[in-house]
Write a structure and sequence with these properties.
binds SN-glycerol-1-phosphate, alpha/beta, 252 residues, TIM Barrel
Length: 252
């Protein structure tokens, strides 16, 4: 199975090169908006476009992905909230297992049901240990998942969870405070997790300021995901991307 996106993440991680991803919720975009986002993302040198949400109500995922693809060549990675959110027009798919929760359906149950469709999609599948961290208010993901998030100050739980995910073979750890979280994940927790794993670390949820994106990268995040703040103000794409890419390389 092709591993183009993942190989590029590993290469960047070795160099300490950080990536910026914009999250697009198919429910909140139309063709005009997608064109604007694609244009801004290209000029800001955004690394990845994530498409998905915990509750996709609309039924136009294929259309959304095709529309993005026709306007830019930034890799499109699906971030599915439900097993039905698969589009063969994307480049890759985060195959999420909610390792911070204790809901067997989201750990393995839905994967069993969707496995044949996911495999036959031909997408690059990236096995991802998904960890929801308390962001100060119930978010859609915590409600839908029916699983408690990791408390925001329990760094040791977060790092043990991430270590377990990595040892179980997950290729990526995604720490998420949930879309629109009141409080983004602390740099202390990010640093604790990053120093105990070797796979790339994705961080998202409630990041509103470029400064916070920068500090998260300095703490050890490899990929920063921003959705809500950009939905409100698309011009933030440029500043966020610049902040993430301004982190000095390990071996320039
Ligand atoms: C949510 O990590 C993403 O799953 C992004 O969160 O929408 O709050 O930026 P925001």
């Amino acid at each position: 199975m092709k591993q183009i996106i993942y190989e590029s993440l590993l290469t960047k991680k070795r160099k300490g090169q950080k990536s910026f991803a914009v999250l697009i919720d198919p429910d909140n975009v139309n063709a005009k908006r997608l064109e604007e986002l694609a244009r801004l993302a290209v000029s800001a040198e955004v690394d990845y476009l994530l498409v998905g949400g915990s509750l996709v109500i609309s039924n136009h995922l294929d259309e959304v992905v095709q529309h993005i693809r026709s306007h830019c060549s930034i890799p499109v990675i699906l971030f599915p909230g439900t097993p039905s959110q698969v589009s063969r027009y994307a480049d890759g798919l985060l195959y999420l297992s909610l390792i911070s929760g204790r809901n067997p359906e989201l750990l393995i149950g839905q994967h069993v049901i969707s496995a044949p469709a996911v495999r036959s999609s031909g997408l690059e599948i990236i096995s991802t240990g998904y960890m929801v961290i308390d962001g100060g208010a119930p978010t859609t993901v915590s409600y839908i998942s029916n699983a408690s998030p990791i408390p925001a100050d329990k760094n040791e739980i977060a790092l043990c969870t991430a270590m377990a995910g990595e040892m179980l073979g997950m290729k990526l750890i995604y720490m998420d405070a949930g879309s629109g979280a009141r409080h983004a994940i602390s740099e202390e927790m990010i640093a604790a997790v990053a120093s105990h794993i070797e796979v790339p670390l994705v961080v998202g949820g409630g990041i509103r300021e470029p400064e916070k994106a920068y500090l998260n990268c300095k703490a050890g995040a490899d990929v920063i995901v921003v959705g809500n703040a950009i939905e409100k103000d698309a011009s933030l794409i440029r500043e966020m991307s610049a902040a993430v890419h301004s982190v000095p390389l390990l071996h320039p």
